[in-house]
Amino acid sequence: MKFTNKEVLIFDLDGTLIDSVPDLALSINQMLKALNMSAFSTEVIRSWVGNGAEVLTKRALSGNIEINPELDPSFVTKALTIFLDFYEKNVCVDTSVYPHVKATLESLYSSGYRLMIVTNKPEQFVRPILEKLGLNNLFEIVVGGDSLPKRKPDPMQLEYVCDKLSVAPSKCLMIGDSKNDIFAATAANMESIGLTYGYNHGEDINTHGASLVLESFADILGSLEPTTVVAR
How far apart are CA 24 and CA 92, in angstroms? Predict the structure, then answer.
């Protein structure tokens, strides 16, 4: 299928544009070490990423993707503070851009599409990462996981972007790697692209109702019919 009349492209960040797991894993293990707890492999931590910093912290403290309901809230708060402090110091050390992402984004931007980021990552980390990876000037709006009262899979972040730009959801397209992205788009009456790589906790992205599923980020270019957007 091809999408028509799209003006605004909204991208998830972690697992969609960038692989941030190496730095997240390093910071989580530094947190666990500070709390005298056992560390985990990068690949185990990779399976926990995708629902924001607090959920990642809870999973690490639980030692499992299923969060221990008996975790002490004050202990979680302490651990989260330690994690975020470590992550701030290591926010873009080994984080990398996925193949074809930069060239595709630059092509979309040059074609006149308005590019946004909606992520569950705390907002304070997003622009520094984009800046270091040479992507910052491409995005008009960044909405983080703590920017609003609710985050994906709730549609609030996407609705905020539509309101901010005075653009109907039908003119927007959500692009992400996890069910949170797809569910948020569906709830916002927005079409979506699901990407097969990234962080979806081992689940098949095809099962979550995306309008289109792609294996390569570069294929986004071929999924868009020419529109009235004005090339820059």
Answer: 9
Torsion (CA) 211, 216, 217, 221 in degrees, nearest 10: -70
- Residue 198 predicted with pLDDT over 90: no
Binding residues: 12, 14, 177
The β-bridge relationship of strands 212-214 and 96-97 is unpaired
Distances, alpha carbon 51 to alpha carbons 119, 128, 158, in Å:
9, 20, 16
Structural domains in the chain, CATH included, are: 8-19+96-223 (3.40.50.1000), 21-89 (1.10.150.240)
Confidence of residue 228 (pLDDT cuts 50, 70, 90): low
Indicate the annotated binding residues for Mg(2+): 12, 14, 177
Mean pLDDT throughout 96-112? 97
Catalytic residues: 12
What distance lies between CA 75 and its chain's CA centroid?
26
* Cβ proximity of 23 and 103 under 8 Å: no
pLDDT computed for residue 50 by the predictor: 81
Distance between alpha carbon 140 and the CA centroid of its chain, in Å? 16
Chain-centre distance of CA 76, in angstroms? Answer: 22
- For the question of whether the overall pTM of this predicted structure is more than 0.90, the answer is yes
Farthest CA pair distance, the chain: 57
